[in-house]
Amino acid sequence: MPEQNLNQITAKLNAAFEGDGRKLVFWYDDKAEFTEDIDSLELVGAKLHKLEPDNQFYTKYMLERLDTNSNYLIYAPFPKPDIRENHLEDTLRYAKRFFADRASSIIADLGIEEKYKPVINKYIKFFAAKDRTQRFYDLEIESYTSERIEIGLMCVICRTSNVSLEEALSIVLTDDGFEDNKFLAEFEKYDLNPTFWRLCEETFGYSDPKPTLEKLAIRMFVTYAGRTLRDELPKPWQEFRSYKSGNIITFLDSLMNNKLYSKRYDEISAHIASVLNVVSVFEDYPPETLVFCDVFALCDRFIIKWIVERLLDEDVGSKLGGMDIPDVCSERLRKHFGEKYAAQYNMLQAAFHIIGATKYSFPSDAKVLFKQYVAADYQIDSHYRSFYFAYDQLGDTSGYEKLRELVENIYTNKYLSNLVIAWNNAYSASNVPDVPRQMDFFSQYIKYCKDKVVVIISDGLRYEVGRALYEKLSDHEKCDVTTEAILSILPSNTQFGMAALLPNKSITISDNCDVLIDGMQTDTTEKREAILKAHIPNSRCVQYKKIKTMNREQLREIFTGMDVVYIYHNQIDARGGALSTENEVFSACRETIDELFALIKRLSGSANVQHFIVTGDHGFLYKRDSLCESDKIDNVNIAGASVNRRFIISNEVIEADGVVSAPFSAILGNDDNRILSYPLGANVFKTQGGSLNYVHGGSSPQEMILPVINVKTEKYRVETHSVRIALVSMVNKITNLITSLEFIQSEPVCDAVKATSYKIYFKSEDNEPISNECIYLADKRDSESQKRIFRLRFNFKNKKYDASKRYYLIVYDAKNEVELFRHDVIMDIAFADGIGFE
Q: Which CATH number describes the domain made up of 721-827?
């Protein structure tokens, strides 16, 4: 029992013992509600005597013979006996009676109106336990009604913090099964089940002579489906549809969007889908009717099947619900089951863009081709990487193997082979395009820097991966970032690329094919540091793996006092270059992006570095399918030659079809007469050992075009803010239970404007949600404002709305956890909570 209640009883009893003369007070506790508390009463000037049914005569003898002076509280944990059976009836005539029923105490404690005392009395058994009673007190219900008291009791049993039928029902559905539900068992114990089902009828329109949780869930899921399907409900389902659809949609939206309940929601959804035989029912529905329905995960299966079929037919112009395939994927990714099917939708989006590239054309001029690749063509390689990154996340790929074969064929034969041949027809050692070159990296980007600069060189960081890192950095509010492209040296491998990024007057090759800068070796970190120090004394070269686990003090020892630090990172090339891990190369790309992003953040904060330049030593070619013999150039063994899968260094020209040769004198600008040979296309030379699908060293945009990402953090950063959204036209009155509103993303996402997610919903001034909750990711980059307009549909609770209350449209930035704005509306729904026209 709450301490406050006991204190009140003690005070009343002690008041009864005040004054002159002996006082006897009888307390018949009819329902034995205070048996646990009676010994804790602190009586002043009185003794406690516990009356039992069989000690009445002794009690009379004790009060009237043994102790005739003391004041006594005589406590009986049972009703007062009939007069004929009560040996103390004459004693009662000169004593006092004390009444302390628990219901009276509770309404006094909580300020509940007397008219609701019968409600408390009805459930008085509930208040027999101290912990239950205390939890009811702790709810701190502001305004008591019969219904709120009853809901409060349910919420105590369900251990919710708010008095809400919806919250109690969320616990009932998600914290136990449909059969033998422990919460319904507790409701039954305290006679709350009839009230629970009555409230379910009033709130959700569910009525049944023998109600069950499963049938309630069926009613809810069918009703939700009826609102989101773009077609009539199946005839067998129509009897389950509720007229309280607004309340149901609000409730299920809250359930599926709540992280505490979403997993159980998925299980319930799957169970109801099985009961309703959704698989066979939805087979007869056109996919466009399912595109906005997210109550069952099976909807995604049908939509994914439709997209796969369109893509296999190379029908990239198909639309579903007025949306093209990428937009359908984006729409479904925003739905509840989007996370579950994220790999499939990401894979299909990537496949769409690759299949759409079947008629790609390439210019004949090397500089134009370079610029076209940097501006647009690199995205095909990004889509290919995204396709396989997602494909590799699928547990079962059997349904997508034909699509994978199509993607592989188009990427390899329509895009990659043609691009590489076009590149090598336009590019040669004697016809290098007038673009920034890797050999000029130091003089162009480092030599004249006025501030400390950290150069991060990631082995194998090709241009399209660098673009992904650039976009990730651009979205960070503390980064001011730009990106450019440079053309690598040939051959495009680690040995030559790492050397070319150092300060140099001349690049030469020793007899055993070591690369020298101004006559100095470059094959170790220490040797590269010696070359760097020769030009910038306060400089250092260090491996990423060495500084990866350093603390702040250790990092500052490395970077303090330095003007230039080169950091060498190796994730892509290490994984791609080994036979056992070459198919992990795209995972390595993702990890590289994350590691470099984290490194920049960490050094900016812990090592006091604000300027970074990220680049690669070379790029790479990668194809998933194993190479055929026709992909390999054979019979090129030349005595003394250094043979790599994508290049050969020899003393003579290799005369073979599909091979391009150039003297090093033309490549390096010296008098070296040795010959570099490389495939015209994406083929490889036949050699022993090494990876087969991941290669580099040759001449292709993927191997030679590299990113240079210039990052300035903190004090150089541009002030950023999250993108805003607004109503296209302000709405002042809601007149329908289903209302669609148009919003606009105020500006495109860019370096200074960051994407964010918004939760948009309606609620009352009492913070009661009255509509479903729409989740919208504001990430559009379109400069045309019309393309940034979007429409959201709201389903309102079917209830009576109070004209004197205020209601609001709430726009909440979920990512940054701030409310963007709220807008007053009048709820003027004529037929709400009655028979109307939903």
A: 2.60.40.2550
